[in-house]
């Protein structure tokens, strides 16, 4: 469509403004000529047609009434061809008449074909545009002309609506048109999945037999108006790359030929329907196209269509060499492409030679093959053990992430007491006790556990993001409770955390503790896995995986940052509680101390008179070895805390720093820090606020 020319509606300025317009086509006798309009009128012999002056429908910002008010007159001319002599049209008022900004033919005849120009002008202003009209007869024994059809495409098994196009001029405003539909010019008993609605034919599910010509017919006075649409049906748009049929994609094809012999390599492929895009298939030698080889002996044939159905094609292309030479030997690749990807198949041309295989040569090759099979089998079965052995004896500690404080951040969701079972108890015991103890005390890693180590400095999400950023790995213990509660949501809400997962800035170790496929929102777990760039999934298979020599610990140790193990000397003073020996001998659990601290705190809070006793006993006993933080605690409306029996066997942490839990003594501190610690130590230990436990204690 041409760009509209500004037309000022104020009548007394119309002429002056339009005189400044410069035509893109030049001026003829001072008249701006916009050439031929893009809209072409086509009509069958004997049908009425209305040609509208295009100036009022895209070239000027005024209608016919405004132009008349401005003193402009509209004149019509006809010519046999564009640029030829134009003569004024005399209207008889019967078959051909001028009605406002249009010409009506009732009906059109073959002699009416040509170019019709409408000229809007007065003594100082002139603008012109032409419209083409084609009048033709129906094809033999048909109700349409094949050159005047509309074209539509529909995908197999999908819906399609066919519209009776170009009938707006034949429908009275507010009237319901009576339209009759035909297929191949014959009345048809339409199936139930095809509905006729006003000027449309709606096909709910397209079938292959819906291909054909659809004609809509309506009455306009004493005349019949027909419009025909050709519907072609295609296969659904493919979302896969083409498939090479020959040669094989999976392996290199080796062809041995004698020097001087002719060569003919043929590549065939199947292309799904990709719209109007032509199949793309070609040969290359190494990284060069065939036409770039500058060898007349080596030629690539045209693409040949073997078969085609509903837009899907099977095509082939051949590579020919008149006489094979030494320089022609090498690898040749056949490539096929579409908008969804590219595939290739490789052929190696080799010189044919007579080889004499002796018993010794065959035996040597067999022995080498057997050795390779044994090595591959050994590597497949003991890959982790071999890698750990090499790393422990010849590897060096990871320098990547040396500026980070922690080896791993541990994320886990606790189980509600009312949902506990034997399986969930084992998972809780593993996540809260066994996993931290083994990694920290047996292998010497430094873990960040939010409930134990997090010291709030702002919002909880910001604190978590800061701590994850200071960790070399992110360990997620994926349990059914973690999935149901969407424990990973914090990594999606915080932009920094999400970017770390997507870009691979931090490596994620996902420990699956149970079969999760039956859980309600398991599909979100799969989506999470696809989001994480550097992800390793490790299966924990219950108590058998707790043994230190199990595959689970070897796989986990392999994914953790490498550090040389140093023997840990755990003295009596460094052990938290000798009565809390874990299943690994020297490995200690913090649940007993945490529970004792929470129990004493709850009693001291519920009974103010016990607060000083608690402060002087429990606090004095621990202040020389441990540091902790206290919280203001709001008592419930009743003024008392729930009985300690309701705590069940949940793990309650009192935020003891990890260095002390691991049995390490605090380093010397500055006087200012010692004064802060002393002031901090004078506060009694109090439980966490509900808003803190609801976030930090349920989901790590």
UniProtKB/TrEMBL annotation:
A Pfam family of this chain: TIR
PROSITE patterns membership: IG_LIKE, TIR
Domain TIR stretches: 404-560
Residues spanning the signal sequence: 1-18
Subcellular location: Cell membrane; Cytoplasm
Name the record gives this protein: Interleukin 1 receptor accessory protein-like 1b
CDD domains reported for this sequence: Ig
Residues passing through the membrane, by range: 361-382
Regions of compositional bias (Low complexity) in chain numbering: 664-674
Organism: Takifugu rubripes (Japanese pufferfish)
Gene3D superfamilies recorded: Immunoglobulins, Toll/interleukin-1 receptor homology (TIR) domain
Keyword Iron-sulfur part of the UniProt annotation: no
Recorded GO MF terms: hydrolase activity
GO biological process, one term: negative regulation of exocytosis
UniProt topology in membrane: Single-pass type I membrane protein
Keywords: Cell membrane, Cytoplasm, Disulfide bond, Glycoprotein, Hydrolase, Immunoglobulin domain, Membrane, NAD, Receptor, Repeat, Signal, Transmembrane, Transmembrane helix
Region (Disordered): 662-687
UniProt keyword NAD, yes or no: yes
Function: May regulate secretion and presynaptic differentiation through inhibition of the activity of N-type voltage-gated calcium channel. During presynaptic differentiation may regulate both synaptic vesicle accumulation in axon terminals and subsequent axon terminal remodeling.
Family: Belongs to the interleukin-1 receptor family.
A Gene Ontology term for the protein's cellular component: plasma membrane
């Amino acid at each position: 469509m041409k760009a509209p020319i500004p037309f000022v509606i104020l009548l007394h300025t119309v002429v002056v403004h339009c005189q400044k317009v410069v035509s893109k086509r030049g001026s003829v006798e001072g008249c701006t000529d916009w050439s031929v309009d893009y809209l072409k009128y086509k009509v069958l012999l004997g049908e009425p047609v209305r040609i509208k002056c295009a100036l009022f429908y895209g070239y000027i910002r005024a209608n016919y009434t405004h132009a008349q008010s401005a003193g402009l007159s509209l004149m019509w001319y006809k010519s046999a061809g564009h640029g030829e002599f134009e003569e004024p049209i005399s209207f008889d008022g019967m078959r051909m008449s001028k009605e406002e900004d249009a010409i009506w033919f009732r009906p059109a005849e073959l002699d009416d074909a040509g170019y019709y120009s409408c000229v809007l002008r007065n003594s100082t202003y002139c603008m012109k545009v032409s419209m083409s009209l084609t009048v033709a007869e129906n094809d033999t024994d048909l109700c349409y002309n094949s050159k005047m059809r509309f074209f539509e495409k529909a995908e197999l098994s999908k819906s399609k609506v066919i519209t009776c196009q170009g009938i707006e001029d034949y429908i009275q405003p507010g009237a319901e048109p009576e339209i009759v539909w035909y297929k191949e010019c014959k009345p048809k008993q339409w199936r139930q999945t095809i509905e006729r609605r006003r000027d449309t034919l709606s096909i709910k599910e397209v079938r292959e037999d819906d291909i054909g010509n659809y004609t809509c017919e309506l009455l306009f006075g004493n005349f019949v108006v027909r419009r025909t649409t050709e519907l072609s049906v295609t296969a659904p748009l493919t979302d896969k790359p083409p498939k090479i049929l020959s040669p094989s994609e999976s392996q290199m094809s080796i062809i041995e030929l004698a020097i001087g012999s002719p060569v003919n390599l043929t590549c065939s492929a199947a292309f799904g329907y990709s719209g109007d895009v032509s199949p793309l298939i070609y040969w290359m030698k190494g990284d060069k196209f065939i036409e770039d080889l500058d060898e007349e002996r080596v030629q690539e044939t045209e693409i040949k269509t073997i078969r085609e159905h509903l837009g899907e094609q099977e095509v082939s292309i051949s590579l020919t060499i008149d006489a094979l030479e030494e320089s022609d030997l090498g690898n040749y690749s056949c490539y096929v492409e579409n908008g969804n990807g590219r595939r290739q198949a490789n052929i190696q041309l080799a010189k044919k030679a007579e080889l004499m295989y002796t018993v010794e040569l065959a035996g040597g090759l067999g022995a080498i093959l057997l050795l390779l099979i044994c090595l591959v089998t050994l590597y497949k079965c003991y890959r982790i053990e071999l890698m750990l052995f090499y790393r422990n004896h010849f590897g060096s500690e990871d320098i990547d992430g040396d500026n980070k404080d922690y080896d791993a951040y541990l994320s886990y969701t606790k189980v509600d007491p009312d949902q506990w079972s034997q399986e969930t108890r084992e998972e809780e015991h593993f996540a809260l006790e066994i996993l931290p103890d083994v990694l920290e005390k047996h292998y010497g890693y430094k873990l960040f556990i939010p409930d134990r180590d997090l010291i709030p400095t702002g919002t909880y999400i910001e604190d978590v993001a800061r701590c994850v950023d200071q960790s070399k790995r992110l360990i997620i213990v994926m349990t059914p409770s973690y999935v149901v509660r969407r424990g990973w949501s914090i990594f999606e809400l915080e932009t920094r955390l999400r970017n770390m997962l997507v870009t691979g800035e931090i490596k994620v170790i996902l420990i699956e503790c149970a079969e999760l496929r039956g859980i309600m929102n398991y599909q979100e777990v799969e989506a999470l896995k696809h989001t994480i760039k550097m992800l390793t999934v490790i299966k924990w298979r219950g108590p058998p995986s707790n043994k230190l020599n199990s595959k689970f610990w070897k796989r986990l140790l392999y994914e953790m940052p490498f550090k040389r193990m140093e023997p840990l000397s755990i003295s009596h003073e460094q052990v938290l509680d000798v009565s809390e020996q874990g299943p690994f001998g020297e490995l200690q659990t913090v649940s007993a101390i945490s529970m004792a601290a929470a129990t004493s705190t709850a009693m001291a809070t519920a009974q103010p008179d016990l607060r000083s006793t608690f402060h002087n006993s429990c606090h004095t006993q621990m202040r020389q070895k441990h540091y902790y933080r206290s919280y203001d605690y709001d008592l419930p409306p009743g003024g008392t805390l729930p009985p300690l029996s309701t705590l069940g066997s949940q793990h309650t942490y009192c935020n003891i720093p990890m260095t002390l839990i691991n049995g390490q003594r605090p380093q010397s501190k500055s006087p200012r820090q010692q004064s802060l610690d002393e002031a901090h130590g004078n506060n009694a230990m109090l439980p966490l606020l509900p808003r803190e436990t609801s976030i930090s204690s349920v989901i790590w």
